[in-house]
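Proteins fold reproducibly. Consider a sample protein:
=====
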Amino acid sequence: MLEGRDAIQRDLDRLERWACVNLMKFNEAKCKVLHLGRGNAKHKYRLGGEWIESSPAEQDLGVLVYQKLNVTQKCMLAAQKDKCILGCTKSRVASRSSQVILPLCSALVRPHLESCIQLWSPQHRKDRDLLERVQRKATTIISGMKHLFCEDRLRELGLFSLEKRRLQGDLIAAFQYLKGAYKIAGEGLFMRACSDRTRGNGFKLKEGRLRLDIRKKFFIMRVVRHWHRLPREAVAAPPWKCSRPGWMGL
């Protein structure tokens, strides 16, 4: 809206005045505008005497945020990096035992697939399959596993699929926000539903009504349905028992 545009421009002007007072200068070439939403008017903004260019995607804290709010590009970049790492591992590491390959994958491959995953969790099946193929390729490097089906390899190695790991990570993050280390911040993310029903785990969260399907895939929305399925013992567990298993599912 026009009021929001004027407020953003005032903030940019304040930044420019602050830079001048401190004898500093912004690099306008590195400053971009990311417009989100279909009905965005795509207003232009000025920093100093230069207009700021718009950008279809920007990276923030290692996460690529696209103007359509999908994560296809992020998944492609993560899969591409891990394929290169697996190729180097296959050519440089002589041993093919699980005691060697699995720790290497845990330290070098998994961080690209799960870093900040609550923010950019894949929304489409093609993106999820793309990430799953990375783990499948990692398991084929291990000696004696290539002839087995994917599910059998995961079972033999004691691994979970990445989809199950993401669900587990979502529930643990929600637990920490609601009852653990981030309880104060969690009060603004989740709202507890007022209900006198005795069925379920007794800790119900409100499910928002959303018009856009993409909003349903956000962390604070997608985790509510799975949270309600948890048993009462899991919801009532003390915070210090909450821990996430590693790559080997231990």
Notes: The mean pLDDT is 84. The two ends are 51 Å apart (CA to CA).
